[in-house]
Amino acid sequence: MRLYRVIVPVRDIEAASTFYGEVFGSPGERVSGGRHYFDAGGVLFACYDPVADGDKRTSEPNPEHLYLSTTEPLESVRDTWTGGGGTLDDDIRERPWGETSFYGRDPWGNRVVFVAAGTEYTGGVWG
Known about the structure:
Elements: E1 5-9, H1 13-24, E2 29-32, E3 35-39, E4 44-48, E5 66-70, H2 74-83, E6 87-94, E7 100-105, E8 111-116
Parallel strand pairs: 1-4, 5-8
Antiparallel strand pairs: 2-3, 3-4, 6-7, 7-8
């Protein structure tokens, strides 16, 4: 079994595709009126606007963090993130479990963490 897609709820698919296109450095792909997909290293990162897809439901931000690992310098990713309208909950620093990361929220309130590649905590003893 493997994880193949995560959904990030948004309230404006056009703005979300532009914002995350800058973050991922790729235009991604519109797959329906309210879905825009990005390749996140073999896992689909899906922005979903239910209203743009003809659904009457509205969406709330994901309540938990979504972690993305990047080989890009975190300073550059952070600047792209905040330049596009994302906010920071905690700036770049080394965590007690060994990751170097920053915590933020996208313009729709979703919690996203960017981790420097090679510092990802994947289990086991830390500390």
